[in-house]
Amino acid sequence: MSSTLQRHAVAVGGLLVGAGPAVVISDRVSLRTGPRAALRAGVTLAEPATAADLPEIAEHAAAVVVGASWTRDIPLVRAAAGLGLPVVVERRAAASMEEWLQLAAYCAGEGDGRVILCEGGRRPDLALVRAARAASGHPALVDVSADLGLSAAAVAAGADGLIIGTDAEGSARGPAASEAERRVAEEAVTVVGALLRDERPGTLAECRQAIDRVDAALATLLERRAELAGVVQRLKPVGGFAGRDLGRERDVVARMAVRAPALGESRLSAIMNAVIEAGLHLAEERSDR
Questions:
Q1: 113-128 pLDDT, tens per residue?
Q2: Largest CA distance in the chain
């Protein structure tokens, strides 16, 4: 398949998966293992155990989940795809990428085309997510519940959203656990997404939200830079303002200008001078304590 397919964003409840910032989904239930009461309270993602579950899923869920073991229950998958909801096609551990994409294509054909890929399990294959997303044109989610440390890597790999708060069997673990996980996932979405996701906001509110994400990433990087600069001040024979290396500062600005040609060296020089001076002031304040 071509890697240049246009990716179609899919609305799931109040979320848009595949355009703008990556999303975080913390309410998923599997009726194969999870409590039916969680579905009736309203969830974003729901997986049926049998076709008898589908009317209730249509009423209470924003999207239906099907798995790559579909060849064992084609009637259920066909019925789920025709439910009128977006279909989240989850790759199970034993399924190849070809089987995963075959199921996605089948669901798109049986339904209205609103299909989202999902990589789950205890060890999600992020390289496979990147390849499948590029080959299919479908947006992709990654379930990082088993290892929240993969949140940033999943966003960097191109995931359009993270699923959190599910147990090994796919059922929700509860609001307390999900809230703690949400903070970790949202930090990855904000900071890594601001650096790597190509956003094209169309409204003033969306522009401001995108700027807020970039500002959050900038603040995180500036704090990190200040900490590293503080280490440099302790290691240099002459620290503080007297130890500034103007030649190195010019080299830093020149390298940055390659990545930010629109700003150019003159604007970057003023920005970096302020950053460097802020770091030096911080180092002096700490040395005086």
A1: 999 999 988 889 999 9
A2: 76
Burial zone of 249 (CB within 10 Å; 0-12 exposed, 13-18 middle, 19+ buried)? middle
User: What's the DSSP call for residue 143?
Assistant: E
Note the pLDDT tens digit of each residue in 256-279.
Answer: 999 999 999 999 999 999 999 999
Higher pLDDT: 31 or 273? It is: 273
Q: What are phi and psi of 100, to 5 degrees?
A: -60, -50
CB atoms under 10 Å from CB of 98, counted, come to 10
> Are 153 and 175 a contacting pair, CB within 8 Å?
no
242 phi-psi bin (left φ>0, alpha ψ -120 to 50, beta other): alpha
- 85 closest CA partner among 106, 52, 116: 116
Report the distance separating Cα 81 and Cα 67, nearest Å: 12
The number of beta carbons lying within 10 Å of the beta carbon of residue 264 is: 12
Six-digit token string for 37: 């009461």
pLDDT tens per residue across span 44-61: 999 999 999 999 999 999
- Degrees (nearest 5) of the Cα angle 74, 173, 145? 75
Q: Is the distance from CB of 132 to CB of 101 less than 8 angstroms?
A: yes
Which strand (E) or helix (H) includes residue 146?
none
Please list, in sequence order, all residues whose beta carbon lies within 8 angstroms of the beta carbon of residue 139, skipping any fewer than 6 positions away.
7, 8, 9, 10, 17, 18, 116, 117, 133, 160, 161
Do the beta carbons of residue 27 and residue 44 sit within 8 Å? yes
d(CA 161, CA 151): 9
